[in-house]
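User: two proteins, same treatment. go.

Assistant:
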Amino acid sequence: MGQGLSCAATQEHGLFSAVQSGDLDTVKAMLERDPSLTHQTTSYDRQSALHIAAANGRIEILSMLLERSVDPDVVNRHKQTPLMLAAMHGKIGCLKKLIEAGANILKFDSLNGRTCLHYAAYYGHSDCLQAVLSAAQSSPVAVSWGYARFVNIRDGRGAAPLHLAARQRRPECVRILLDNGALVCASTGGFGCPGSTPLHLAARGGSIDCIRELLAWGADRLQRDSSGRIPYLVALKHKHGACAALLNPSSAEPLVWPSPLKFISELNQEAKTLLEHALMEANREREKNILKGTSYSLPSPSHSDIGADDNISEASDAELCCICFEQVCTIEVQDCGHQMCAQCTLALCCHNKPNPTTACLNPPVCPFCRSTIVRLVVAKVKDCDDADQDIGDIGSPKMRKARKSRNFSSEGSSSFKGLSAMSPFGKMGGRGSGRIAADNEWIDKP
C-alpha cells in the first residue's frame, strides 16, 4: 500500500512539473494512462493542473484540459480560480480562453475577497483588465449586477479596482478604469487609511502619472480621509514633493474632462484620443508652472516634441483653427462640418457652466453656426488639389481674413468673441475644475 501511494505521488508530481514546463506530449500521455489526474491537486495549495497552466501561460495545455471538461472555475486552497491566476500573472491568452470557456468573472477569493478584476488592476496588467471589462459588458454579470457596479466592485477591505491600481502606481489601469465608469472620488473601507480616495492612495504611492489621470477626471483635492487628511498632506508625509506640489490646494486647479461632452452622443475613439491628449498637454503646462523653480521640475520636452510645430507644412497652415489661429484644425463638428483644434473644442465645452439653481448642464453648441453639437469626429484632411485651390498665399493676412469670414456667420460672432478673448487654456483653470459656485460653496458637477 505504501509503495502504491508513493507511485501515485510521483505520478502526480510529474504531471504538475510537465504542465509547468509546457510539455504537452507528456501531459497528454499521462492523462491517457490515468484520466483521473485531471482532478488531482497539489498537496498544500490544492492547485489543479488548470491553475498551473493558467499561471504559467501554457495555453495549449489549458485548452486541452478544458476540452476534457475540466471545470474552468475550479478553486485552490484560497478559493482562487485559474482566471484569477491568469490575471495575476498577465497571461492574456489563457485569460481569454478561460472566459470563452465560461469562467465566472464574479468569483471572489478567500484571501482578500478579490475578483479577477482586482488582480488585473493590482498587478498592472492593462490588457487583462480590458479583457475582463469587455467580457463583463456582454456576460450575465452585466444583467445581474450591472456593469457600473462591477467596475466599482469592492474587495473584503472595501477597495475597488481603482483604489488598488492607484496605490500600486498603475496609471494605464487607472485610465482604463476611469474610462469605464470607475468612481474617481469613492472612499475605501479598511484598505489603507479608512476613507482614502484613489487620489489619497496615489499620493501615498508617489505616482505623479496616476495623480495626473485622477485629476483630469475630476478627483477632489480637498476630500478628506477618516483621519481628516487631504491628499496633499498624505504626499507630504511620504515625502513625495512633486506630487504634493500638484495636490496643494493653493496651486492652480487642473483641467478636467468636461461634463458637457456627455451630451455628445457620438464621439468616436480617434476624436476622443485627440481631446484627451489636448487636455493632458494643457495640464502638463500647468504642472510646469507649478513646479518651476523647484527641485521637482519636470524634464524638458524631447527634441522631437519641440520641433513638432516647426515641422507643420505650409499647406496645413491654411487649415489653422479660426478661434485661436495657432493650432491646426483636428476636430470636426457633424453635421455642420465646421472645424476647430482640439484645444478650442475643450475650451468651448468647458465654457458652458451648469445653472447653479437647477444643476442643469446645457449641451455645447458650434461657435460658427450655433447648432447643438451631437457628434465630433476627426477633421477630414483635404486632398492636394483642394488644398492647392484654397491655399493661395497662405502667409497673406487677406487669405486668413477670407477664411475667417467663410467660417463665421454673423449669428456666431458673439461666440467667437467670447472664446477668442482668452487663449484656449490660458484662463481655463477655474472653468475646468469640475465644480460650480453656489452660495459660496463648491459642489461637484452631477
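Protein 2:
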Amino acid sequence: MPKVQNIVALLLVAGGFWYFYGGPFQQDGIQGVINEIRTDITEIKENPEVISAVNKVSNEIQLMFQELMQASPEKEEEQQQDVDPPKLEAPTEQSFSVHNVEIGDTRSEVEQKVGTAKRSSLNEYGVDWVAYHENYQNFFMVAYDDKNKVAGLYTNQDLVTTKLGISFESSRDAVLAKTNEPLTSIQKGFVSYQIQNNEEYDTFLIDQNYVTIFYDKHENHTVTAIQIISEELENQRENFYPVPSEKLKEGFEYQLFDLTNAARVTHGLSVLSWDESVRETARDHSQDMADNNYFSHTNLDGKSPFDRMTEDNITYRMAGENLATGQTSSIFAHEGLMNSLGHRENILQKDFERLGVGVAFSSEARPYYTENFLTK
C-alpha cells in the first residue's frame, strides 16, 4: 500500500511540473525549462505581495526574539539565589538548638541573630508559629510563649546541632541508639494521648521538652525534620485536636505553604507562588469532605480536582492535588505527605509554579487538608 501511495504522489508531482513547464520543454528542451524557472523565481522574489509576506514573517520572528530576550532577565531574577548557611554552634543550655536558637531564648535574642520574621500564623498550641528564612533558605519556625521566650522550634532543613551526636544524616536506628526509648503516649491529667508508632517519627522527652524527630522513608529513614515543644507549651493543649477557628484554618494553610517551599528549596527546586483563587477551590473540597465524612480526590458528585478547578474558572497547563486528614497540625500533615510517594512527587514536581492550600474542620474538630498545585 505505501508503494502505491508513493507512485500516486510522483505522478501528481510530474503532472504538475508538466502543466507549468510542458510548453517550454517542447519548444526549447531542458534549457527552456531552466530559463522559465529562473524567470518565475525572479518574478516571485520581486512580487510586492511576496515581499510584504516575507517582511511580515521576519518582523514576527524579530518580535518573538525580542520578547524572549526581555523575558530572560526576569527568569534569571526568579532563579533561587544561594544564601550562605549560618555557622552553627553547639547548644549551651539544651540538648538541641535550631539555627543556634534554644528553648528559653528571648525573641529579641533570636531576631538579633536572624532578623525579622517573614510570617506569623496561629498553630495548634494557641500561639503563633513565627517563620524565619531567606527566600525559604535557612528556614525554621519559632513558637513564643506569653513572655516572648522560645517555647517551640521546628525546621526541615539542616540547621540542627545537638549534644547527642544526631544530624540530618543520621538514620532512625542511629537516633534510637543515642536516645532513650521513644514515648508511646503523653499523659495530661487523667487523659493519655497515644503517639502513633509508624516509623515515620519518634517523640522523646528530653530536657523537659517533647522532641519529635521525623524520618524520610524515601531517603533510608534518615532525619528530615525536628520539632521541639516545651513541656509547659504541650500541656497548654488540652484536646487531641485543636479548637477550630478561622484563624487556625488560615494558620494551617500558610504553614503548609511555607513547609512545602522549604522542602522544595532543600531539594534544589524553585519556590512556589501563593494562588488565592485555587485556595478557595481547595477550601471548598476540604469543607465538603469534612461535612460529608469522606476522604477522596473525587467528590460525591463524581468531580475530580481538575473538574473542580475548571468549574471555578481556574486555567492551568498542569495541576495536581494532595490530601491529608487527621493529623493534628500542619507539620505532621506535611511530613506525612512527604512520606507518601504520590504526594511527595507533587511537592517536588519541578514544573509546578503555584500552590493554594485549603483547610476545614469536621464537627469533631478533625482537620482536612487540601493542596492544589498548578502551572498556568
